[in-house]
Amino acid sequence: MKKLHPVTILFLGAVPALAASADVRAALGMSLAVLIVLLGSTILLGLLRKLIPAEAKLPAAVLTVAGFAAMTQMLLNAFLPTAASMLGVYLAVLAVDLMLFAGAEDALSSGLGEALIRALLRAVCFAVFVFVLAALREIFGSASFAGHELAALKDFRIPLLAQPAGGLILFAVLLAVVSKLFPGEEGEGALSRAAAGLTPENKEA
């Protein structure tokens, strides 16, 4: 099994991670959405991978992820309307998220069992990171947790952390920590990164 690279995953999934980082409830809702899309697209593409030609792999991954993202948005609107309303338009952004495309791409290049394990690891990695980010922002930025006020911290809160700029700063710090703990390997999600222009050649340029 290829080594999972959480740093690459979190970088490609930066938009949904940041969008869900202002409140722990939103973080859990986004993590659930990512899990559903990853597992659904992995199972479908893993079963069909031998029928999809090499040149159609990326379009197939994009269409499959977009379809499951739309279905997930409808499910959350139906059963978890509070979380869905907190995430708003960012649920739809999952349809064009490179982290999910990279996961779908893996399902097309490896066996179903291995792809499912990697999808679960991706989802867990994303969920833990976003939960920690949201908890830190909400506790120390808003003096609350899951919408409940923490009176003891009200006088010690840091308003910057509750703002987008504070979220970006904290995201960068946590990403640096993850990068140090999980050095990982290059090469994951190659088609998706190439389509976005995130190739080594472009980085050097």
Describe the protein's architecture and organization:
This protein has one domain (6-184). A two-stranded antiparallel sheet has the order 1-2. α1 (6-12) crosses α7. It is elongated, with a radius of gyration of 18 Å. It is built from 11 helices and 2 strands; from the N terminus they run ααααααααββααα. It has 205 residues and is an all-alpha fold.
Fraction of residues in H or I helices: over 70%
Structural category: mainly alpha
Task: Identify the overall geometry.
Answer: elongated
Mean of residue pLDDT?
83
The major beta sheet can be summarized as: 2 strands, antiparallel
Number of strands: 2
Question: What gyration radius follows from the Cα positions, in whole Å?
Answer: 18 Å
N-to-C span: 32 Å
What fraction of the residues are assigned to beta strands by DSSP? Answer: under 5%
Overall tally of domains: 1
Q: Order of SSEs, N→C?
A: HHHHHHHHEEHHH
Provide the descriptors you would attach to this structure in a database record.
205 residues, mainly alpha
